[in-house]
User: What shape does this take?
Amino acid sequence: MQNQTQIFGIRAIIEAIKSGENIDKVFLQKGLKGELFTELESLLRKKDVNSAYVPVEKLNRLTKSNHQGAVAQISPIEFYDLETLVMSIMESGKTPLFLLLDQLSDVRNFGAIIRTAECTGVHGIIIQKKGGAPVNGDTIKTSAGAVFKIPICKVDHIKDAVFYMQASGIKVIAATEKTQNTLFDVSFKEPCAIIMGSEDRGINLSVLKIVDEKAKLPLLGTIESLNVSVACGAFLYEVVRQRLD
Assistant: This one.
């Protein structure tokens, strides 16, 4: 199993970005100033690298080394190009099944979803470049290594992926409680992509407006929602059940 790699130090991170290193996220110390730090901030914006401002205590937990106010996480995987992936699955003769994650933030949920997706024959997972959980050591561990077995794509916005799926003849289905339809009312036998939302907000309203169908899980108890990785598993196994029939 590969391990997550870190780069620390402002100059080292600048050089890594310029050399095209596959950086997943950069953590920057809140309130830090200086010419070199400003150069790093500018480069992050220019290259559209995912970043976050955090207290120095967070950086100290990430590394024992002299981080100088900046720590970068290097992704342990190479991300796929969405258009190339969709086209290859369409041309293979398989019935496409994709999973879109709208800013899912918990790495353990992310890892659990990747594991279930691999077990249920999902052809690819699409995430947003910013705002979602990183692919890190916890993701790898929770996925039981499945992160290395299933293609993962990054897009600027989930809506970009929705539009591309629809243009490719793939039905986009949102897993949301904002509907009367349950997942048992929806056909998953044709090419489809399922969207799961974030743990706290669900699917973005602007995304919900453009999907083809919405479906929810019937909840018979008093708790109003399921953990997102559990809900995702229920949806994916309904796809398996329908396609096995």
Summary: Residues 82-244 form a domain with the Alpha/beta knot fold (CATH 3.40.1280.10). The CA atoms of residues 108 and 200 lie 15 Å apart.
